[in-house]
Known about the structure:
The structure holds 2 protein chains of 2 kinds. Chain A is mostly helical. Chain A has one domain (2-264). Chain A has 12 helices and no strands. In chain A, helix 2 runs parallel beside helix 7 and helix 7 packs antiparallel against helix 12 (241-264). The relative contact order of chain A is 0.13. Chain B folds into 2 domains: 3-215, P-loop containing nucleotide triphosphate hydrolases (Rossmann fold, 3-Layer(aba) Sandwich), CATH 3.40.50; 218-282, Alpha-Beta Plaits (2-Layer Sandwich), CATH 3.30.70. The mean pLDDT of chain B is 87. Chains A and B meet through helix 1 and helix 6 of A and helix 2 and helix 3 of B.
Amino acid sequence: xxxxxRIDLKKLTNYRTFWIVCGLYFFxxxxxxxxxxEFLKWLVRxxxxxxxxxxxxxxxxxxxxxxxxxxxxxxGFFKAILAFMVVISITNEFTYRTVRQNVIDGLSRYQFLxxxxxxxxxxxxxxxxMVFIIALVTGLIYSPSVEMVDLxxxxxxxxxxxxxxxAFLSFALLLGMVIQRSGLTIVLLVLxxxxxxxxxANVDDYVPWLIPYFPMESISNLIxxxxxxxxxxxxxxxxSISAVLIAGAWTFIFNYLAYLKLKKSDI
Amino acid sequence: MEAVLQIExxxxxxxxxxxxxKMNLEVGKGQVFGMLGPNGSGKTTTLGMLMSVVNPSSxxxxxxxxxxxxxxxKKIGAVLEHPIFYPYLTGQKNLELTAMIKGATADxxxxxxxxxxxxxxxxxxxxxxxxxxxxxxxxxxxxxNDPQVLILDEPTNGLxxxxxxxxxxxxxxxxxxxxxxxxxxxxxxxVQKVCTHFAVLKKGNMVYSGPVxxxxxxxxxxxxxxxxxxxxxxxxxxxxxxxxxxxxYFEVTxxxxxxxxxxxxxxxxxxxxxxxxxxxxxxxxxQFLEILAESK
Lengths: 267, 296
């Protein structure tokens, strides 16, 4: 297993685009999530000039345990950039036809896929660790008091975040494997959210119970949006088991379909 | 003879097109096996199936007497169609990757690079290589892990005459180590020079297979001319099965058992002295064209 991961990492770590895309991903992810307080301060200044009073103290964005859900939710938007890297990595194998040579040289098709899936797991895990560190550091800075109870509360959001990223990367891998061209795959990857939203809107009129089972919907259901609670609305502040099961099932389906596709096609 | 490769009823259909039709073939250990055929005759598709990148429609094959797995392929070095590498990696890194897949050691990389004379350029990116260098790197990569069988598909494609002769020498050198080589080519001269056995493919059907030595076994052809017109005299010669005029000479195909000196003797008895009499060596090219024509 580790051997297969090392094979795929050798392809990537010598590829400049990989470092640029990943560097930009971690940079923008870090900067955005860590500078929320600056954004709030800016909002206050803007509000003051229009004669509105906003009290930052009333918005405990970075307080434990709120910070866990807030930051994992916001970080989720950035997973698309990581997915682009996955698309580039897999479509390169088809445009250069190196997948063919890998198999000729002695990888089985299954091993080839596993090497890509392991990289996806690694990228998801690294992203999770990064987000955890940012949330921990910002939480320690901005929380008025740090209680151990608050600190260890709601940590399941990180497991949900990992699944969210890994599920989406699995989808990107499947799409790249089916389409095999990077440009078209990236366009479809971006549009897939919208296409599904359109379908959902139509399905909603007839079979509303089906909605949570849609793939993109299930991925975004893993971490519910936390912000409405700051205007005193009821929100779901936990990870629902059914959301995890549905998203987990889709992740398995994406990877299994990728396997079937690779197994059946002439490469 | 120990069989390295046995192919049984191997078939591949692309929709309605039959690319390879019920092929049966056996390649023995130590053979240099040439696969001949015009473009689109199914050579690469066949090799693709043997290396598990093309799924057969029916039939099967065995490497070393066993069903093929990915571990079997690690013992086979293959270059199909054209060299395939990661363009952004250096030659060295590309070979390191192949070595990781095949389970070859770092020493082997150094030695194969030396063999194909690419040591000087190993740290340059693959995309900067010339076609000849790409071909040589592909052969180097195929030689990693000391393969029992080497499969080369048009290895001299696009090379200059010097490159062609270098690759030919390389093939002979590798073959002299007792390794089996399967060589697909449409350059007949090349196959005749290096191969021990050959097969001819046409539109997915294998129309001939046998040793290269047999090429010279067929009826003899003699080119003859004299100061007088020979057309009538030659028609009375019993040992001729066909007479053609070509390039100002008479080309006489002799019947079985008749040799060039019989014709010479016949002419002399008729009071004619030949000014030109050459027994032509049959080329694979001629044989190949004949096989293709016969199989229509």
